Each structure stands twice: as structure tokens, then as C-alpha cells.
């Protein structure tokens, strides 16, 4: 009889222990971390929190003034807003906002003091249209002067530069061969583009408006073969046209040349 009672006691005890073990089973939870970039860009409906595994969460990003929602990064890369996720692991989500440029003038709305600029207009750093002052055409038909740079003369010295305007100083190096350049904008010549800020065309000054202009070398070919020819030179930024006649051109990389040109 005692043995039967013992057996019954053991069975009851095992059942109780099993019941207690099931009741204490740990619930799995995951943490959701929510961030905003930049912090002033907006807010998210859901804050950082811990959720039971399998919980469905909906996050909505709301932009502040001058910003728009861009994308979610972190655990997911998605542009959906609202965004639905399932908590099956620890997750970090970042709501990314960006500054708007409503009138697409290159100045963001937070800085734009003129938010309705015309498309394609030139604006200042406040987003307001700039007044464009066009430089009037000036044709120099004044007295003719001569400029000469001697062979071997230092091109860095003012005496060896034809300082036509503040933006154009013409000279020639002694080691580069057949090229002149603009000392204001260049430290050395480039056969394709020098002198920068100028364009040339063979012809007379009275037909300047109908001429086709190119670079110095395109217009003259080999400068030594252009001696005696007259060219119209356009100083682009100053919008000045003047006449230049090549008088001499030294070979063997001597660096000398001379011309006569019209003045204002």
C-alpha cells in the first residue's frame, strides 16, 4: 500500500514540475531603435521600443518645414512611407530627410528668400535673381601702336607683356615654340586654347560682326606664316574688338615676336 502511495506521489510531483516549467517559459523580444537624419528634418510616429517577436509595426515619417522625406536606411532600405516591418530581430531604422529646393534654382528652401525664381534664371546665394549687366561692344579704331618682345626676354616682366586690358596680357615663353598666351589667366601656353580670354579671325576691323572666331593657332596656323597678315581679336570678357597685324615671329624657340594693334 505504501508503495502505491509513493508511486502516486511521484506522478503528481512530476506533473506539477512539468506544469511549472511550461508556465515559466521565456518570451522572446526584440528592440527597435528609431533615428532621424538630420534630427531637424522631421519626426517618426514610432519611438525606440522593445516588442515581442512577430509584432507588426507601422512607422510613419513626417517632414518638418523646408524638408521632405527621402528614404529609410538601416535594417531596411525603402522609400515607402508609411513603412511596415515585422519584429523578428533587433532592428535599427533611420528616417532620412532632405532639404527641398522647390523652385529648383540651386538654393534650398531654408535659405531661399525668393522662392519663386523663374526656371533657368541666374540667382545669388539667397535665391534671388541676379541682375545681369551686359558689357557693351567696344570696337577699338584708335591709333595703332607697336608691341615687341625680344628674343630671350623674360615673359614674367611687365615690359615684355602687352597689357591690353586688366584681363589680357599677351606674351610668349622662350622654350615653348609657336604660342602666345594670356599671362593674367595662364602661367604657360596651350596650343589649343591660348591665349585664354581671346578669339581670333583673319580679316579687317570693319567686318568684325560677321567674322567667325577661333583660337589663335586655329586662326593663324603656323604663326611664322602669318607674319604680314591682319587679324581681328575679340577680348571676350571685356567685349572689345581690335585689329592686330603680325610683324615678326622668331623661330628656334627664341620667344620673340612683334605686332601692331589698334587702340581705344
- How many domains, in number, for the residues? 2
Helix content: 10-25%
Shape: elongated
Q: How many strands in all?
A: 17
Q: How is the biggest beta sheet arranged?
A: 6 strands, mixed
Which SSEs are present, and which pair or pack?
Elements: H1 2-23, E1 29-37, E2 42-44, E3 49-52, E4 56-59, E5 61-63, E6 67-74, E7 83-86, E8 91-99, E9 138-139, E10 144-149, E11 162-165, E12 168-171, E13 181-182, E14 198-202, H2 216-220, E15 230-235, E16 240-249, E17 257-262
Parallel strand pairs: 1-8, 9-16
Antiparallel strand pairs: 1-3, 2-5, 4-7, 6-8, 10-17, 11-12, 12-13, 14-15, 15-16, 16-17
Can you tell me about this structure?
It is a single chain. The model is unreliable at 16-22 (pLDDT under 50). With 264 residues, the protein is mostly beta strands. The strands form 5 sheets. Strands 9, 10, 14, 15, 16 and 17 form a 6-stranded mixed sheet that branches. A hairpin with a 4-residue loop joins strand 15 and strand 16 (240-249). The protein has 2 domains: 29-99; 138-262, no CATH class. It is built from 2 helices and 17 strands. It has helices at 2-23, 216-220; strands spanning 29-37, 42-44, 49-52, 56-59, 61-63, 67-74, 83-86, 91-99, 138-139, 144-149, 162-165, 168-171, 181-182, 198-202, 230-235, 240-249, 257-262.
Amino acid at each position: 500500500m505504501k508503495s502505491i502511495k509513493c508511486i502516486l506521489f511521484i506522478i503528481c510531483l512530476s506533473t506539477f514540475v512539468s506544469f511549472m516549467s511550461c508556465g515559466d517559459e521565456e518570451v522572446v523580444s526584440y528592440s527597435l531603435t528609431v533615428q532621424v537624419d538630420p534630427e531637424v528634418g522631421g519626426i517618426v510616429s514610432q519611438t525606440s521600443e522593445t516588442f515581442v517577436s512577430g509584432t507588426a509595426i507601422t512607422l510613419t515619417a513626417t517632414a518638418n518645414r523646408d524638408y521632405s522625406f527621402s528614404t529609410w536606411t538601416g535594417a531596411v532600405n525603402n522609400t515607402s512611407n508609411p513603412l511596415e516591418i515585422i519584429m523578428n530581430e533587433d532592428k535599427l531604422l533611420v528616417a532620412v530627410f532632405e532639404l527641398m529646393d522647390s523652385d529648383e534654382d540651386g538654393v534650398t528652401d531654408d535659405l531661399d528668400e525668393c522662392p519663386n525664381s523663374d526656371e533657368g534664371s541666374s540667382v545669388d546665394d539667397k535665391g534671388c535673381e541676379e541682375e545681369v549687366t551686359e558689357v557693351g561692344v567696344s570696337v577699338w579704331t584708335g591709333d595703332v601702336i607697336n608691341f615687341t618682345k625680344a628674343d630671350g626676354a623674360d615673359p614674367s616682366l611687365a615690359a615684355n607683356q602687352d597689357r591690353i586690358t586688366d584681363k589680357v596680357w599677351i606674351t610668349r615663353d622662350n622654350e615653348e615654340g609657336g604660342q602666345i598666351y594670356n599671362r593674367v589667366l595662364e602661367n604657360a601656353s596651350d596650343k589649343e586654347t591660348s591665349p585664354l580670354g581671346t578669339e581670333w579671325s583673319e580679316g579687317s576691323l570693319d567686318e568684325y560682326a560677321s567674322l567667325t572666331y577661333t583660337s589663335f593657332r586655329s586662326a593663324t596656323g603656323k604663326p611664322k606664316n602669318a607674319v604680314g597678315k591682319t587679324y581681328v581679336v575679340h577680348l571676350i570678357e571685356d567685349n572689345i574688338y581690335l585689329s592686330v597685324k603680325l610683324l615678326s615671329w622668331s623661330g628656334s624657340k627664341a620667344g620673340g615676336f612683334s605686332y601692331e594693334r589698334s587702340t581705344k
